[in-house]
């Protein structure tokens, strides 16, 4: 039984075992980024799920702006909490360097971070459609595809199966959560939207490859669950728990 | 004579001397961040100023989304360009480590990056007032002060003259450009707005201290110039060049 902590909840009582604590929401793509890094690096952690509509009062003590994901370091004085998925990802990569996900060279690291930043226009364009917003701009999917072209081109330019090269890396993990959600568009849009197999040929091959990754499989939810969650959220009653009933 | 390059311009002809090239706009606070790092670290660089209203056609070759600041590395194959002020700052700190501005410890580095991220709500709240937008929300300055409280509290918590400690560091430089601009509010708002000396006592002491820093003085423009620029920009004719006439 998974508890999703809401306003009336009390602070979770967890053992003082020095194990990381992750505050997240199971359908939040930014939270998934952090889970992917933790799972890829096999870093032990406790999971605490937050009701984002009806946030616990005590949560502000950990994440002052109420944001998820948040990572609490219980083996450090004052048990500080980190927020912002990219900052957490880079912290984890430096703190747990056994499996390096960021390039070690400063230039390539900067270029990968810029590429991840360039995914924001993709997300911003598709977000209203992905969340079943009835007022989504008519050209939302057109703008989405235009923004996504840069990633198809980048994969062609790099000439490798993953953005990171021959094995999976930081760009792959950081943009993955949205690729997991795109297939839900087929279920939620009237014209059953799918990515064009020709225009996004390399990205679709990449998607099939990444889908097989161990950490990706560990955090995966299927298109129907994503669609059902967005439907419930649109009605003002997000069903956070359907992720755990499956 | 400083050239501000606009649509009809041709690519600047610069010597192939391997020296960094910085594309920026003299009144852009994000550009100033990069100039502060370069000046603090005394890294030689060429300056190229871009007309942001009437951007050069060729600029997309360097910064695909037309953003400033951009840093071009001319001593690397294909002369790649980096964008995003924070990514550039971290790259420069790793590539030119003689004077370290970011904390070397992963946790403190992450905490400083989170603090810099928390400056975004300050900027977002004050931006319409700072840019003399007639439709600025009535509560803009109230929201600005509430967001700024976190920084006054953080300085108290850290108990040091600079956010970085006894000497200037990355948080100080990254948030400074806006503190340079706040005094222009006294000139542009009807009620001659100034930061409350009691509520923001530590921040105002910090401001006077940072204002004396060599890199800060090198990039500084006074309140009147900032006010004049914003006035010209509001009229649709940004006077980029007034920075150089002074």
From TrEMBL, chains A, B:
Keyword Iron: no
GO molecular function terms listed in the Swiss-Prot or TrEMBL record: glutathione dehydrogenase (ascorbate) activity; glutathione transferase activity
Domain GST C-terminal per the UniProt entry, residue ranges: 105-239
CDD domains: GST_C_Omega
Record has Oxidoreductase as a keyword: yes
Annotated InterPro entries: Glutathione-S-Trfase_C-like (IPR010987), Glutathione-S-Trfase_C_sf (IPR036282), Glutathione_S-Trfase (IPR040079), Glutathione_S-Trfase_N (IPR004045), GST_omega (IPR005442), GST_Omega/HSP26 (IPR050983), Thioredoxin-like_sf (IPR036249)
Key words of the record: Oxidoreductase
Gene Ontology cellular-component terms listed: cytoplasm
GO biological process assignments: glutathione metabolic process
Highest taxon of source: Eukaryota
GST N-terminal domain sequence ranges: 18-100
Pfam families noted in UniProt: GST_C_2, GST_N_2
PANTHER family reported in the protein's UniProt record: GLUTATHIONE S-TRANSFERASE OMEGA, PTHR43968
Family listed: Belongs to the GST superfamily. Omega family.
Name by which UniProt lists this protein: GL15567
Record organism: Drosophila persimilis
Lineage summary: Eukaryota, Metazoa, Ecdysozoa, Arthropoda, Hexapoda
Gene name of this polypeptide: Dper\GL15567
């Amino acid at each position: 039984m998974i508890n999703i902590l809401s306003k009336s909840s009390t602070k979770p009582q967890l053992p003082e075992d020095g194990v990381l604590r992750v505050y997240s929401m199971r359908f939040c793509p930014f939270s998934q980024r952090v889970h992917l890094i933790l799972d890829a690096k096999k870093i032990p952690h406790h999971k605490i799920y937050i009701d984002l509509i009806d946030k616990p009062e005590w949560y502000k003590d950990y994440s002052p702006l109420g944001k998820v994901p948040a990572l609490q370091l219980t083996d450090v004085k004052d048990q500080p909490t980190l927020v912002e998925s990219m900052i957490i990802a880079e912290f984890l990569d430096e703190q747990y360097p056994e499996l390096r996900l960021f390039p070690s060279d400063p230039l390539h690291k900067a270029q990968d971070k810029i590429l991840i930043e360039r995914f924001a226009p993709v997300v911003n364009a598709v977000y209203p459609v992905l969340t079943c917003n009835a007022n989504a701009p008519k050209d939302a999917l057109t703008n989405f595809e235009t923004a996504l072209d840069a990633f198809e081109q980048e994969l062609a330019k790099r000439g490798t199966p993953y953005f990171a090269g021959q094995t999976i890396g930081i760009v792959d993990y950081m943009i993955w959560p949205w690729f997991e959600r795109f297939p839900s568009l087929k279920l939620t849009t009237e014209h059953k939207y799918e990515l064009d197999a020709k225009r996004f040929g390399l990205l679709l091959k990449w998607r099939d490859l990444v889908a097989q990754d161990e950490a990706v499989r560990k955090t995966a939810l299927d298109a129907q669950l994503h669609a059902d969650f967005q439907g419930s959220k649109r009605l003002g009653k997000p069903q956070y728990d359907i992720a755990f009933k499956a």
